[in-house]
Amino acid sequence: MPTYKTKAIILSYMKFKEADKIIRAYSPHFGRISAIAKGARKTKSKFGARLEPFSYCELVLYKGRNLDIITQIEILESFSDIRESLKKLAYVYVIADLILRSGAESDPTNIFPFFLFSLRELQKIDDSLLRQWLITFQLKYIILSGYKPILDKCSLCGKKIEKLTKNAFSFKHGGLLCSDCSIKEETPTILENETIEMLRDLSEKDIKNWNENTYSDLAQKECQEVLENYIYYYLESKLKTIQFLREIEQI
Ligand SMILES: [Zn+2]
Questions:
Q1: Quick one: which of 44, 141, 182, 217 is 20 to 30 A from 250 by CA?
Q2: Would the pLDDT of 38 be above 70?
């Protein structure tokens, strides 16, 4: 029976039959994979607690007729701190959801190291940086998927945009509008300068330096809203996980 080995990040699992689990995971060469772990729900299972969401592991699988079957699993990084924090879980599920829904435009060889890095960062930060973590990784994911927002010129006429007091942003055109074009747009979203600065800063800088600056509450709030709507517009997904995050943020 042909077997293969792959690194993967576990995203979720569901119970299957009496004693099995079906896991969904993300791998650097195959993207999303689903596989079955036979007997994983038995107390003496060889899998133990190693199939928990966000575990980074190496899997050995053999090709099944419908689903591939996991024969071995070795944990490389468990990321247990993420699972132990309800807040961190609420944030990481938004990114995991994006990755699960990613289409053909997203190359897993780029997305996988990005996702792994985001988990390593999330593991070590405290709650005050959670929102900035989410904004950064949503924005970078959008850019990796080929939908970088246009923030240096008008997204409709291409004219260079000078510093404005009110910045009109168009989802339809994928970026800022100059004052002439903003009149033509029915309902442009108006963003503060500090929000535009935050978006520009994070989209240009190396992802490794994502937390070297901090941004105002207002900028973070507006960025969060604009990115949620941007994802909705371009990736056509209204993420249920965002609703869960809203509820957790109230606690
Ligand atoms: Zn224009």
A1: 141
A2: yes
